[in-house]
Write a structure and sequence with these properties.
418 residues; alpha+beta; Rossmann fold; Dna Ligase, domain 1; D-amino Acid Aminotransferase, Chain A, domain 1; 3 domains; nine-stranded antiparallel β-sheet; four-stranded parallel β-sheet; 11 helices; binds adenosine-5'-diphosphate
């Protein structure tokens, strides 16, 4: 295919993009702070700089025809001058404007009337209740005072109140920068709400209803420069301590649910005139399909596509950023189970024995990110297990047996304390 593209970011997503670029004969240059970051090993070149360093992004642009991002927490105002100078970002910055913060995402979904959990800004809990009518406004109160000049009561600090229609438990979310549950907290009581307000800047958090779901589902979709849209199969995701633990592809979901998810994806991509890969996380339960989060990039729920699809999500993003039409998203396997390898010890050396044992399992493809630091809960790698079952129920059984094999070798990390 040829060409030369850039990625701001050097973590595992950029590393898998770099691997896909190599296979397609595309140069991939990254901007990342450390030469030890996963993608630096495979990239054609590295601009060593913080992700928000716009001067560095300008030099990345000099080596490439177009740039994409590994992470959505972007400062679009500082990138805008580059776009005006002719730097090509994919997705374009105006397509990203509604996606770079969870509050903007919630507002976008409301505007498009796409279903998502009910929410309100945390600040709203501090809004004083509407003032009681004054004497002038309410004749019933006139004359109630003897007209003496009473000293006004000193204003008491308000205790936060939930807007009408909301009750505990609620889910609190930082509007920017959160990932893997860092930046989300369950708020179960008034005391926890008050503690949250003490601990954070309320203008940078939101609260949403706590959703009772039966399944978490995810869909990776893509749109090219020509407006063509494709979706990968709907998958089920499972979280441990709010971090993705495993993904089953395809999900055991009805055709109606899958069709609904695809409709949501097509509506979003078209409304944003979006070019690139975009991922949607859903809750599915008594309230139907609700959108939890949008990620304008490749996603953990799509890692299985490396083994299971004709064009992986990474190869797809490389194609789109290079200006090529979409590749074929169809599957080559009946099913796949992706398991994240979350750190459970602090030393990376400690994992060699487990990695060997995992590699010896049948039909397993191991991806080790080569991170220098391994704290508990950090994503250190993932593996994809090829599944053979053809029916949904059988596939779920097969996946749970294969997951048990992996767990016997690679335990889950202890849960974080809240
Ligand atoms: P992050 O951006 O850190 O991945 P998410 O918004 O995806 O945060 O939340 C992480 C996990 O927390 C979700 O996968 C889900 O399991 C749980 N979660 C998030 N929001 C809610 C909610 N409103 N109700 C119930 N659980 C939720």
């Amino acid at each position: 295919m040829g060409g030369s593209i850039g990625v701001v970011g050097g973590g595992q997503l950029a590393w898998m993009l770099a691997a896909a670029a190599r296979e397609q004969g595309v140069e991939l240059h990254v901007q990342t702070p450390e030469l030890s970051d996963p993608a630096a090993r495979l990239a054609t070149s590295v601009v060593r700089a913080a992700l928000g360093d716009v001067t560095a992004t300008r030099s990345l642009a000099q080596r490439t025809s177009a740039i994409s991002f590994e992470n959505e927490w972007l400062d679009l105002d500082s990138l805008a001058p580059l776009e005006q100078e002719g730097v090509v970002f994919i997705p374009r910055l105006d397509s990203l404007a509604d996606l770079v913060c969870k509050r903007r995402q919630r507002q976008l979904l409301e505007r498009l009337r796409l279903p998502s959990p009910r929410w309100f800004p945390l600040e709203q809990t501090l809004t004083p209740p509407a003032p009681a009518p004054t004497e002038q406004e309410d004749p019933a109160l006139a004359g109630a005072s003897d007209g003496a000049c009473e000293a006004a009561e000193p204003a008491l600090p308000l205790s936060p109140r939930l807007p009408a229609g909301f009750d505990f438990p609620l889910m609190a979310k930082a509007v920017r920068g959160g990932y893997d549950g860092r930046g989300t907290r369950v708020i179960r009581s008034q005391a926890e709400l008050e503690a949250l307000i003490e601990a954070v800047d309320p203008s940078l958090w939101l609260l949403e209803e706590f959703v009772t779901f039966e399944q978490e589902l995810a869909l990776v979709a893509c749109r090219d420069h020509f407006g063509a849209v494709q979706c990968y199969p709907l998958v089920e995701t499972h979280q441990h301590d709010q971090v993705c633990d495993w993904v089953l592809a395809p999900a055991a979901a009805s055709q109606a649910v899958e069709a609904r998810a695809r409709n949501v994806a097509v509506s979003l991509l078209a409304a944003l005139d979006y070019v690139g890969v975009l991922s949607i996380e859903f809750f599915y339960g008594p309230s139907g399909l609700l959108i939890n989060e949008l990620a304008p990039r490749t996603h953990n729920s799509g890692h299985y596509t490396i083994e299971a699809c004709r064009t992986s999500q990474f190869a797809q993003q490389v194609r789109i950023v290079s200006g090529e039409p979409l590749g074929d998203t169809s599957t080559t396997l009946r099913g796949a189970l992706m398991v994240n390898l979350l750190g459970f010890e602090t030393s990376t050396a400690a994992y060699a024995r487990q990695r060997q044992a995992l590699e010896a399992l049948a039909d397993v493809h191991l991806h080790w990110y080569g991170k220098r630091l391994a704290r508990p809960g950090r994503k250190l790698g993932h593996l994809t297990v090829e599944l053979k079952a053809s029916g949904a129920a059988e596939r779920v059984r097969e996946a749970s047996l294969r997951l048990a094999e992996v767990r016997a070798i690679w335990p889950l990390p202890a849960a974080r304390t809240p």
